[in-house]
Amino acid sequence: MKLKDIAHIRTGDKGNLVNIAVIAYKEEDYKTIKEHITVEVVKDYDGVDRLFFFADILESNWKVGTAISAHHAIGVVVEFIMDLLIVRIIILVIFISITLYIFNSITKPIARTVQIFGDIANLDLSKTIDEKELKRKDELGQMYNSFKNTIGNLKVFMKEMENTIQINH
Q1: Is residue 94 part of a domain?
Q2: Domain hosting residue 153, numbered range
Q3: Which partner from 55, 99, 115, 126 sits 20 to 30 angstroms from 162, CA to CA?
Q4: Residue 114 included in any domain
């Protein structure tokens, strides 16, 4: 029995890759085709390892098999994995950048607040608070304005104390 008597064969190529599809005319011949068309048979023909795939096509009651170069199929998988790895690295870099930006946008103002509070605690009222900090529309802006008011009130208090001390002497 010849293959052409029990199956229709389609081939296609893409560059140096060849795909072979074997389509059984009758369902009972599918098993025979699957048994006789093996990796060893095709490899013996041209020395290339191939992966074989068989499937049912219900609409036409066909059994279809195809062979793809193992090197090509695995190469596609490796390429996909590398692309996925690159995408993950890019996402990770973006995530880390956003995290650092948010971290700095929170910690720098807090550190500045601690510095201002330390100056007030040491009665160093000569430092001024930047206008940009005072115009913030968040809780830190409110805190900076409170510090500014505290510094102003302490300056008035210290001036009154100085005047009182000078009067009493």
Answers
A1: yes
A2: 123-169
A3: 115
A4: no
Residues 18 and 99 in one domain: yes
Task: Please tell me the total count of domains within the chain.
Answer: 2
Same domain, 96 and 15: yes
Separation between Cα atoms, residue 90 and residue 154, nearest integer Å:
52
Question: Is 112 among the domain residues?
Answer: no
The reported pLDDT for the residue numbered 93 is: 98
Confidence check: pLDDT of 115 > 60: yes
All residues at 6 or more sequence positions from 129 whose CB lies less than 8 Å from its CB, including other chains: 116, 144, 147, 148, 151
Structure tokens at 121: 């605690």
Q: In this structure, is residue 52 part of a structural domain?
A: yes
pLDDT at 43 (0 to 100) = 59
In sequence order, what DSSP letters do the residues of 130-155 get, joined into one string? Answer: -HHHHT-SSHHHHHHHHHHHHHHHHH
Contact between 144 and 113 (Cβ < 8 Å) = yes
